[in-house]
Amino acid sequence: MEKSCKNVYITTPIYYVNDVAHIGHAYTTIIADMLARYSRLTGSKTYFLTGTDEHGQKIAHSAEARGKTPKEYADEVSGKFKKLWDDFDITYDKFIRTTDQEHKNGVQKAFETMYKKGDIYKGDYEGFYCVSCETFFTQKQLIDEQFCPDCGKPTNIVKEESYFFKLSEYEDKLLKWYEENEDCILPRSKKNEIVNFVKSGLRDLSISRTSFDWGVKLPESMNEPKHVMYVWLDALMNYITALGYGKDDINMEEFWPAKVHLVGKDILRFHAIYWPAFLMSLNLPLPKHIAAHGWWTRDGEKMSKSKGNVVNPKEIADAYGLDSFRYFMLREVPFGQDGDFSQKALLDRINSDLGNDLGNLLNRISGMSGKYFDFKIDSKDVIKYHKKELDEVYAILDNVESYIFNMQINRFLEDIWKVLTVANKAIGDYEPWAKMKDGKEDEAMALVALITNIMAKVALLLDSVMPEKISKIASSLGISIDTITYNKLIVNKELVNKTTITKVEQLFPRIEEVLLKQSIPSQVSKDQAENKSSKKPEKEEDDNLITIDKFFETTLKIGTIVEAEEVPKSKKLLKLQVDLAEGRNRQVLAGIKEFYSAEELVGTQACVVANLKPAKLMGMISEGMLLAAKDENGLSLIRPETKKTIGTKIS
Ligand code: MSP
């Protein structure tokens, strides 16, 4: 049982073919893809499995309702899943279908093995069955003696001959496994639920059905032509049949046990109880982690076809960009918790995290390196001038990897963003433009090289999350995204000695909300997301020229200063409350104390940069900036010539 595998095997659930893919399916698949890509980059031999679950009553009913045979229907929907994952550039190594002959052979071999071991016996089943969940229940478990406790739909009474798996005999062994393997079920809160469930007692599990025939037949040696296997026994076995169980076991040797089975919280019980019990019965090692994620709602509501609010992942990725969608899914919700999908939340992530923090940093590298050093970067003085910043970065990065296979992917990303903050802050602190003016070219170079190196490390870590955008960042920085570079820059903490920066288009242009659901996203927005312009793209000009779009990235508004006071102990700062007609005043800390008194400002108007990320100055938050011009005669605020309505946009 203890064998663990140095190679990495990652699985998603296999998706039922009774429905088209929605955001929940995309979520699991994107997490698995991120883990697989990361694992490959670190040099681990990796196998990533996904596929479709095609047997059972639910699929048979759906096919019948459409006038198709179950196989015709399964072919059609399975093909759609596969196409979606291909469109999403999901790097699966195998796409398994439970109707594949090799899978069916493997399941039969497993049944035979468990039967020979004495873990399977024949009996009669009498109870209730939920077709939607493909789950058996006792009457006591039902709601109002009729409805499924998981999905709320009416259940059917089932009374038929059945084979049973002796699940009850695995109670103690399962409890021992949970106890000895702290992280076998993630997150911990979910593990506790499973442990309590098992402690409350397990009943033997019905694993064959006779009232329909859309399933894997029992092995011929059983001579039971009327029986097909319970769909969950068939489905769970996919994790080993995909590696050749029952045929050639070469891949089993290499990749079993799985590093992680990713599942949604609704199917954790099948994976954390039945699956390890089946594996124990087969004398196979148990998976390292079974990780259960939460459910996505839309704008606070459960998604359902009847409400018409199911989020179509393809539509979102087409409208906002695949990488942005991937980032959002992985960053927005702590693993295991439920998450809410709203366009606003997605836009905030794109415009703020991706546009402001990541994209702009790359622009700054390209701008500064071009302006001062003809795009040539040399890291020779980085350690001399920036050991402090490098230490800060390494202290953060030392922990990030441990978050990944503990499924704390949002924390992994949060920490990478802390590293970006170190970089953005260093530019403000060291002002390379001032260093250049003072003739301290080597210091300016050290700073730009520091930022380039931080960006290179971040790019390596983010490649699994946003592969397409990161390949653009990497080519702009002149680095490769591969295991050798990963080992050099991340594991061995080396620097990129010399490199030449290449200018790239803006990676995450600001985007506005688009019309989704049944409506085709507007072409303009689509183009925005894909970085295309509806006009002919303007040639990127000299550093000092920007396009009009770029200018409009800054929101400038007229505001009235309603309160002003001096900031104690500060020579420069005044603390202002500025009304921008937003329902509350903004606090702005302005470095104008030497030129204006607090009293004379109250009641006057100013031009405010309204979409600046809030910053802390002397422990106080500042939520904007006033426009001003300073020359040898002093500083003047820039104001409208005549009073303007508060909140008016400046263009
Ligand atoms: N076929 C079984 C799995 C067998 S694995 C051996 C199955 N299929 S499913 O298509 O119904 O669900 C697949 C996955 O989608 C599950 O992990 C489920 O949790 C997930 N989701 C379905 N709706 C979801 C959301 N709204 N949000 C997040 N994930 C959700 O179950």
The ligands found in this model are:
5'-O-[(L-methionyl)-sulphamoyl]adenosine
CATH fold naming of the largest domain: Rossmann fold
Q: What percent of residues are in strands?
A: 15-25%
CA-CA gap between termini? 68 Å
Query: Could you estimate the helical fraction of the residues in percent?
Result: 40-55%
Average pLDDT works out at: 90
Estimated radius of gyration: 30 Å
How many independent structural domains?
3
Largest sheet: 7 strands, parallel
Question: Can you describe this structure?
Answer:
By secondary structure, the chain is an alpha/beta fold. It has three domains: 8-293, HUPs (Rossmann fold, 3-Layer(aba) Sandwich); 316-500, Orthogonal Bundle (Isoleucyl-tRNA Synthetase, Domain 1); 549-650, OB fold (Dihydrolipoamide Acetyltransferase, E2P) (Beta Barrel). 42% of the residues lie in helices and 18% in strands. It contains 22 helices and 27 strands. Helix 11 (313-320) packs across helix 12, helix 13 packs antiparallel against helix 17 and helix 17 (441-462) packs antiparallel against helix 18 (467-477). Mean pLDDT is 90; it is low at 518-544. 5'-O-[(L-methionyl)-sulphamoyl]adenosine (MSP) binds next to strand 2, helix 1, helix 7 and strand 12.
List keywords for this structure.
Isoleucyl-tRNA Synthetase, Domain 1, 651 residues, 42% helix, 22 helices, alpha/beta, OB fold (Dihydrolipoamide Acetyltransferase, E2P), 5-stranded antiparallel β-sheet, binds 5'-O-[(L-methionyl)-sulphamoyl]adenosine, Rossmann fold, 27 strands, 7-stranded parallel β-sheet, 3 domains
